[in-house]
Amino acid sequence: MEKIKVENACLLERRGIGCFFFKERKKRKQIIKKQEQDQKQQNQNQQQQDFLSTDLNKNLQKLQNIYQNCMDVVFRPFQIGGKTKAALVYIDGLADIVEIDAGVLTPLMKENNAKENTDQFIHVNHILEQKLTVSKVKRVQTITECIEQISGGNPVLLIDQQSEGFALGLANWEKRSIEEPVGESVIRGPREGFTESLGTNLALLRRKIRSPQLKTKSMKIGKYTQTEVVISYIEGIAEQDLIQEVEARLRRIKVDGILETSYIEELIEDNPYSPFPQVLDTERPDVVAANLLEGRVAIFQDGTPFVLIVPVSFYSLLQSNEDYYQRSLISTATRWLRYIFLLISLLLPSLYVALLTFHQEMLPTSLLITIAASRELVPFPALVEAVLMELAFEAIREAGVRLPKQAGAAVSIVGALVIGQAAVQAGLVSAPLIMVVALTGIASFIVPRYTAGMALRMLRFPMIFLAGTVGLLGIMLGLLMIVTHMATLRSFGVPYLSPMAPIQGGEIKDVLLRAHLWKFNTRPHLTGADNNIERQGPNQRPSPDYGDDKTSKGKGGPL
Fold it and tell me: pTM for the whole thing?
């Protein structure tokens, strides 16, 4: 009887706790709903108060209150022709002071108001058309638009008795010159790379693709940084569904600030827990242009030279832009060398551990005796030995990257030699393992994309642990897990292992080998639609038979 009473009491207590949490959750929902309504009302009130007034002093007072304690914001009052009050607002260091003096202040302050002109709007148009020597002028009607233009480096001209201002395209700040990207150097190909200036980057892309079908859409991301982000694609080649998906994912981002495209990459990728990159980043205009011509979308951000490209596949991360600047046979051989060393980078240390720990009979007798003699004084098992050396190698490589350029390479090479030789002489590791780790490190550098190489470096350690505990069976299990995971990945809806899984026979010519350029008749099949996939005309195969269509029929015409 007492047990039943206790159970009933516990049941009532649980029900009471459940009711309490239900009430609390309902109360929280009501609070959130009320906050959203208040925020909506506040935004509406702010929009009503946001429009510029015809009173210049009121407009300046609003801006001065917003830019309070901002010593780099300049408010320059003056008079147009000595009669009409006006003011120029800009940020020192972001606006071109020389152009402001020569093209704005000087002609306006010397404006002659003696002629009869009773219509103030006609007077303003007269100023804009005949007095201002500024090529780019935009009308702004709200305080928010003024702030956006001022923060972007464009001075804002405010005139008394005018309910709109004028943003002058005179932004000018220090920027880096165009240089070859350090991480994507080539033997043959363009030597130019993107910079931190969004305008410069878009101009570099326009130099590559001069068609008006190249579209660019701009948006602001970041509550405080208001970073300008631009989506670029070729209309008629990129699928509309892909463009809409990219825009939807970008507009979904609600953060305080975006400082680099890596922020965007983490917020728009399909599977954030995967070690494999699902977005391609590059600093090269030719890489962006080539991907746009294949129907992909590029994402530019002001303040960084790295441009994101979506969607991508795993095989596109293993391709270099120089593959298309070399001859077909050479590029095909280079790709296969890349695939082989990709497997070496991932599996060589784990194979070494598995063979020495579980499968010594698979080694030739002479090789086994040599390895056993070198490991005679080593106190650690092969698993611990391999993990320690891999950690040391990764530490040396990371130190070489972070050190100054002059000392980084020396520290990486000398440090590896000294530490490796000292470890062998001290009996901590064996000489064959030093060779295995060195060959693994060289193989990892052959992967052209740094992010893909980082994924392989991460996966190398669990593969070593699986090999040290289960042997070759563990290696096969690890490979199955990796391939299964990659088969489930998507990059904006495109299978990560395409065109191999699912197989697309027409596109394998650009995966297993690099076919001749005149064989790339169609664009990659990305998002489902088959319209407009022809990328070149017929009979592009080169032939010595130059002449009319009858002469070159069936043999191809001249390039």
Answer: 0.82
